[in-house]
Amino acid sequence: MMATKPISSVIAGPAGHAVLPALLSRRYPAVMGVVNVTPDSFSDGGQFIAPEQALAQARKLVADGADIIDIGAESTRPYGSQPVSAEDELRRLKPVLANVVALGVPVSIDSMKSEVVAWALDQGAVIANDVWGLQRDAGMAALVAARGVPVIVMHNREGADPAIDIMQDIAAFLARSLEIAAKAGISSDRIVLDPGIGFGKTPEQSMTVLARLGELSSFGLPVLIGASRKRFISKVVPSEPQQRLGGSIAAHLIAAQNGARIIRTHDVAETVQALRVAAAIKDQQ
Ligand code: HH2
Question: Tell me: the pLDDT tens digits for 118-127?
């Protein structure tokens, strides 16, 4: 009789090692498509809460050229999102996740709870996306180390403070995250840094981060940027989240120019096209 291993011991082992180099091997950044199985996400809350709608959206994003699908079941928007229990997150993810994994694109799990991440890795997710940079759930670093999967370590703050030097704050936070990662035994070649556009930042600070993103290269690690539909765009051109495609693409092109290696977006087809055309133009220099 075949031993029944959890899927993660089959997939997260070898795939956990190989997934990041493959995603970072191209001239232009990898594109991560967002699937929010939530009633209250800031730009698409409620659209994909039904399992079949979430799966259809994931399928569309893969067809549009997504290199990674990032699936989340708790809105992390700074103002007004409802905290969700691990049970609720799992209840939302259960009918969806394995089907999204079956689409054949690496899946990352966007959760700050190690219990949810552990379950998702068992279902075949191969990347952990922690919007609290290993600093919220004490079990997260040990879990990521034990599973050998890549982890996205994002900067976050409880609230924005316009008086601080945001680049300094991000650097100090990420240094602390890297210390936690090293202590837990997470290999540095599995870590992606993310300054967390829109998280605990004023709109101006989010734009500062994009403009000065190159400063994060001193960490020597790949950087992910998720500016998609975020509020800073509306500070420049008042707009509803669904009307922020142009601003999102502008931000992502500047991020790519300043060194971002992974772009997280709701609008995959348009973003892939923009990144590829920008790279092709650069080739002509
Ligand atoms: N942004 C959001 C959620 N997760 N993860 C990373 N690593 N970086 C980000 O910038 C990021 C993230 C917010 O966007 P969205 O998922 O659309 O909204 P919500 O949190 O309301 O579901």
Answer: 999 999 999 9
Q: Is 118:142 a contact under the CB 8 Å cutoff?
A: no
Does residue 136 have an active-site annotation? no
Task: Return the pLDDT at 45.
Answer: 87
Q: Give every CB contact of residue 106 below 8 A, 6+ residues apart in sequence.
A: 15, 19, 23, 67, 68, 69, 126, 127
DSSP letters spanning 5-49: --HHHHHHHHHHHHHHHHHT-SSS-EEEEEEE--S--TTTTTTT-
Write the CA distances from 55 to 9, 44, 49, 50, integer angstroms.
24, 14, 10, 9
Instruction: Tell me, in angstroms, the distance from the centre of ligand 1 to residue 7's CA.
Output: 26
Q: Active site includes 264?
A: yes
pTM exceeds cut of 0.90: yes
How many Å lie between the centroid of ligand 1 and the Cα of residue 77? 7
